[in-house]
Amino acid sequence: MIYNVVRSLDILLNLVVWLIIGRSIVSIVVRDYGNPLVRILYDVTEPILMPFRKIIERLNIDTGMIDFSPLLAILAINLARRLLWGMIF
């Protein structure tokens, strides 16, 4: 039972990572932010990335034009996945 819950959460977190990667690629390639698919991608990932942007801002880290919040979010999600599986095994 617990294994199935952890596996489901792991799949969900993995999907979120891929959505963040997709958003990062879209932000480089696509300039049509009015596209409904792009808008959905941004709407889904923004609540995840915003806290990491605020952390970078509070630490007064000047990243120039590069947004490191996707990288930090993916690292945090991977840490959460490892901790989740660590509780099982």
From TrEMBL:
<dbReference type="InterPro" id="IPR003425">
    <property type="entry name" value="CCB3/YggT"/>
</dbReference>
<keyword id="KW-0472">Membrane</keyword>
<feature type="transmembrane region" description="Helical">
    <location>
        <begin position="12"/>
        <end position="30"/>
    </location>
</feature>
<dbReference type="GO" id="GO:0016020">
    <property type="term" value="C:membrane"/>
</dbReference>
<dbReference type="Pfam" id="PF02325">
    <property type="entry name" value="CCB3_YggT"/>
</dbReference>
<keyword id="KW-1133">Transmembrane helix</keyword>
<protein>
    <submittedName>
        <fullName>YGGT family protein</fullName>
    </submittedName>
</protein>
<feature type="transmembrane region" description="Helical">
    <location>
        <begin position="68"/>
        <end position="85"/>
    </location>
</feature>
<keyword id="KW-0812">Transmembrane</keyword>
